[in-house]
Design a protein that fits this description.
72 residues, 2 helices
Length: 72
């Protein structure tokens, strides 16, 4: 994990590379990227949950069909 000194050095390096005027724009881009990542993660999670529900439903239907069929 990074300590306080490392964060200060990184901050000054970014300040030198991008300048004071570009930092807000850079942070907006980072924020937008994080929001898009979270939205994609949320979508993936919901799709996985739905797929698991469908698989459970199919298993229950198969069990019910097997119980309904008389054994020979």
């Amino acid at each position: 994990m990074l300590g306080g000194t490392e964060w200060v050095v990184i901050f000054f390096a970014v300040l030198l590379l991008f300048g004071g005027k570009k930092i807000p724009e850079l942070m907006r881009g980072v924020g937008k990227g994080i929001r898009e990542f979270n939205a994609a993660r949320s979508t993936l999670e919901s799709e996985l949950r739905e797929g698991m529900r469908e698989a459970e439903r199919k298993q229950l239907e198969e069990k019910q069909k097997a119980q309904e069929q008389p054994e020979a």
